[in-house]
Amino acid sequence: MIYSGPLYKSMNIEGQKIRIHFDHVGSGLMAKGGELTDFEIAGSDKYFYPAQAKIEDNSVIVSSEKVKEPLAVRFAFTNTAEPNLFNKEGLPASPFRMDNF
Predict the structure, then answer these.
(1) What pLDDT, in 10s, does the model give residues 31-55?
(2) How far apart are CA 8 and CA 19, in angstroms?
(3) In a domain, 98, yes or no
(4) 94 by DSSP, 3-state: which?
(5) 10 Å Cβ neighbour count for 56?
(6) Is the residue at 72 inside a domain?
(7) Does the pLDDT at position 70 exceed 90?
(8) What is the DSSP letter of 33?
(9) Can you tell me the distance from the alpha carbon of 34 to that of 19, in angstroms, rounded to the nearest whole number?
């Protein structure tokens, strides 16, 4: 029985992208209502830019043309965020940040 939505577990930098791994993915990840929203990515300048994100297997790949050497990702980290990342059981992913800038 899945009792939680996806929770940030770890990340891997893969060139100009960051792959995010989650606990509690259940039978998989999904985006409700279209493309994933509310992801931001930063490089060594420590400035977060809106990012493109896509689900691949049970992870999320995050990137931006403005960040060539990514270091960190934030998800749903604003007061007005309306994130749409869920597990297939219908439970929402929790907001997270992986920086300590």
Answers:
(1) 999 999 999 999 999 999 999 999 9
(2) 11
(3) no
(4) coil
(5) 10
(6) yes
(7) yes
(8) T
(9) 20
CB-CB contact of 34 with 10 (8 Å): no
**Rounded CA separation 100/83 (Å):** 22
Residue 1, pLDDT > 90, answer no
Residue span of the structural domain in which 65 resides: 7-85
Mean pLDDT, residues 46-75: 97
Per the domain annotation, does 73 fall within a domain?
Answer: yes
Examine the pLDDT at 101 and tell me if it is beyond 90: no
- The residue among 38, 30, 10, 21 whose CA lies nearest residue 95 is 38
| Domain-located, residue 93 | no
Q: In residues, how long is the chain?
A: 101
- Spatial strand order of the sheet with 39-42 comes to 48-50, 39-42, 72-75, 96-97
Q: How far apart are CA 27 and CA 86, in angstroms?
A: 11
How many domains is the chain built from?
1
